[in-house]
Amino acid sequence: MENNKIAVGLDIGTTKIVAMIGRKNEYGKIEVVGIGKSKSLGVKRGVVSNITQTIQSIQQAVEEAESVSGLKIEDVIVGIAGQHIRSLHHSDYITRDNSEDVINEGDIDNLVNQVHKLVMLPGEEIIHVLPQEFKVDSQADIKEPIGMYGGRLEANFHVVVGQVSSIRNIGRCIKSAGLGLSDITLEPLASASAVLSQEEKEAGVALIDIGGGTTDLAIFKDGIIRHTAVIPFGGNVITDDIKEGCSIIEKQAELLKIKFGSAWPGENKETEIVSIPGLRGREPKEITLKNLSKIIHARVQEIIEHVYLEIKNYGHETAKGKLIAGIVLTGGGAQLKHLRQLVEYITGMDARIGFPNEHLAGDSDEALSSPAYATAVGLLMVGLEKKIKVQEIKQVVKEIKNEPETTAEVEPEPIIEEKLKPKKKSFFEKFTEGLKDFLDNAE
After folding, report:
1. Bridge partners of residue 275, in order along the sequence
2. Considering only CA atoms, which of 343, 245, 346, 247 is closest in space to residue 294?
3. DSSP annotation of 29
4. DSSP character for 284?
5. DSSP string covering 191-258, please?
6. 130-166 pLDDT, tens digit each
7. How far is C-alpha 442 from the chain's CA centre?
8. Keywords of this protein's UniProt record, alphabetized (predicted)?
9. Which of the residues 189, 225, 292, 328 has an alpha carbon 20 to 30 A from that of 72?
10. SS3 186
């Protein structure tokens, strides 16, 4: 299989690390050819806290994916989340040299690159610059300005910012695991591309991805990303509460949560009891399921209220910002029983569980469409899109190069060569070069 047709998504989570190798089949659906996962030991709340352990976990996941697929993984698309992520809104404009020409992709790139140069707080770096609406001269609310005439091109941007050190640590782990880093994507954006339909994004929807260490939120309206946030709680705090509340060890608490846990305390009777073996010769513990679901309910309610506050801050209660499609829950934490009912009860919005199976080929393994793999599938989709773009541009360059050399024909080459690089070149090259220097000095 041609290596340029496959891509690899690497989801570095707080509980698990997943490496997913895939390609597009002839129907444009994604075929997963290999998947590897390992327990994530060096990550706390979405941020790398132990480099050595994270490198080992990445290598383990990658080796497993390689042995399943029989392919060698060279570079990966990695997701970033964690409590250091924040987002802001920014407007910027460029004045075009020649308003007789139509606006092309180059103009939009110039505008995006200009936003990339924004001065951030010390120790912060821009991860994504996402255009929302454009304004050409004085005509506002333009979704797609390419092909229009105009002298001044303006846009509102959603800018996602993260800590340089956290981004560098991820880069360091990937480099030390013997892999190339082809791009970094915000995890809630990746999950969104895996589980949301275009109609939902148009109507207005909030995607809540409940992971082990963080809960990620992405809000879409009119097909455009409007708000992102990372809340530093996830499934692990629920497990911790069960551990404390029932005086049991973490492994038992996690199993209890998965097997018997429910977010709705009303439905367990007082008489339902689980017996847990005691530690080394101690008496077994008896725990009522009612108590268990009370503990889970209290913590889940807190997480949902945090998220709901973000949704209200975005402006869900205004007529213009109303999220008609409600809420989509995904991530490992979305598998908790009765979570959907609790979310609907607290927020008064419709909710559904998001499975990442819409874009997967029909014969995919059932396990892959679990909400826990939403981010990995999303990262894989981002990677494949990028590969296809690069292929198309290479094709154009090739065609231009093969044409007879007249001065007029040779002119466009440098522009196209420029575009071979990922769109975020200003940030990304700067970041990769910075990373290389940093690593070379560190070794």
Report:
1. 286
2. 245
3. P
4. P
5. HHHHH--HHHHHH-EEEEEE-SS-EEEEEEETTEEEEEEEES--HHHHHHHHHHHHT--HHHHHHHHH
6. 999 999 998 988 999 999 999 999 999 999 999 999 9
7. 29
8. Cell cycle, Cell division, Cell membrane, Membrane
9. 189
10. strand
pLDDT per position as a tens digit, 256-301:
999 999 998 877 777 889 998 888 888 888 999 999 999 999 999 9
- Residue 298 corresponds to which tokens in the numbers above? 């209290």
Beta bridge partners of residue 21, listed in sequence order: 8, 34
Q: Which residues contact 134 (CB under 8 A, 6 or more apart)?
A: 142, 143, 144, 145, 153, 154, 155
CA distance 34 to 162: 30
Q: How much is the pTM?
A: 0.85
* Ordered domains of the chain (ranges, CATH): 235-299 (3.30.420.40)
Q: Are residues 359 and 29 in contact, defined by beta-carbon separation less than 8 angstroms?
A: yes
What type of residue is 290?
Answer: K
Length of the chain: 443
Cα–Cα dist 77/183, whole Å: 5
Strand 351-353 to 327-330 pairing: parallel
